[in-house]
Structures are given as C-alpha cells and as structure tokens.
C-alpha cells in the first residue's frame, strides 16, 4: 500500500513518527505552513520556519524513505497580528522554490477582516505563481466559514479544480462537492473526522476529488490516521483501486498541478532506534 498524506505538520513530529509512517505505507507528504502554538512576533521567525520547511524537513523525511513537499503562506490565525503582515511581501520569492507545491494554509480562523484581506492577497499570489491553494476552514461556525470561503475563491477567479478546501465534515462536504473544489478531511483521535465517519462520506460522495489527511501537529493527533482510513475502507468493502485513489492518486493529481511534484523515493537506508542501518523495501 502507498499513502500520500496531503496535510501534515512534521515540524511538530519526531523521527520515530517518520519511521512509523514509512512502516504503515506513507511515502510522500505535503507540509503546509501553520501556527506553531506560540505566537510569532516578527517576520524573521516566519522566514526561518519557511527555510526549515524547504531544507531541513525534506532532508529529515528522506532519511526515512518519505518524499517531503510543502505549501507556504501566512496562516489565517496569525494574519490578525499586524507584526506578521510583512510576511505577504516576502512570500513571492519563497513561492518560486521547487519543493513548494501550493499556497497554504490560507482561509479563515475567526472570520475577521484581516483574515479575509490576507486570504484574498494569497489567492492572487497563487494565481500569479500558477500554484494550487490549500484552504483552512474555521473550526468555529464551520458551515458559514465554508460558504464564505467558496464565495471568496469564486470572486478571486481561482479555478475550483486548483483549490483544496480542508477540514470538512458532514455539514460542509456537500457545498464543496457542488463547487467543483477538491475536498479535504482531517482524521483526528477526538475531533474533526474519524475513519468510520470518513467511510460513510466516501460511500455517499464517491472517491473523486476526495483527500484524507492526518493534519498531525503539536496537539492530540496521529500521523497514522491515513492508514486507519485505508483499513476502514477495506473493511467496508472498498477495493484496492478505491483506496489507492483516495490515499495516493488524488493528492498526486491535486498537487501535481503545481508542476513541481517529485515522487522519487527518499534514501533507501535509515538508522533504526538502536542506530543500526535498516534497508527500505
């Protein structure tokens, strides 16, 4: 089985997680820029973070046989902090980098005017750089936030097939399906979606334009939730082709629109927990 996690924050995870992910079938990830938990107070801290997503994190992933790409943006939460506004002037030079396959995460957190201005500005950057967009829908008042998200995407002239609207659930999937955008679902231990609920939606809406991610970060989350969805799909009667479409081909198709997606394997040997060399199959 091959798995592509299209939204995971490996900066927050350990190398043990990389090893477990490879053993579960994960061979590629996209790491979108997000809020680190501790508010950043200046543009320089963002630039150091972007540099790590472009350099250190791909190197770390490759040691465990996983290909790492990223999406870069000023995230919705920190778009409200005027100290971070200059990130938008720095982004264009970062969006030229080979391993950047999308602009993201953009969208809403608290549905403020500042968030909307940053959202619109970054949709324009995505169009100017011919990149797809990963959109974060708010955790509160999600239905209203998703409706507004789709309005902003439409008004910006962003082609829906180049937009992935993430963190969806039973209340929001229908409107995104109707919009023509790609549909993203984060599978969490306690919140958002779980594997069984995901299977129900896959039965109802099919497998086209559906992406499943772990969105694993510094909070309670699990980087193996993509594999749990695959196992739940098999248990529910889905075939290997269905699982491969949702867990591999769909993220490849979406991020492949960047023209930068490279799925060559990482290095074929990595240290195990004891420091011994183990071979990758």
From TrEMBL:
Per UniProt, what is one GO molecular function of this protein? hydrolase activity
Q: SUPFAM superfamilies of this UniProt entry?
A: Metallo-dependent hydrolases (SSF51556)
Read off the Pfam families from this record.
TatD_DNase (PF01026)
UniProt key word Amino-acid biosynthesis: no
Whether Metal-binding counts among this entry's keywords is: yes
For this UniProt record, the keywords arranged alphabetically read as follows:
Hydrolase, Metal-binding
Q: Which family does it belong to?
A: Belongs to the metallo-dependent hydrolases superfamily.
Protein name in the entry: Metal-dependent TIM-barrel fold hydrolase
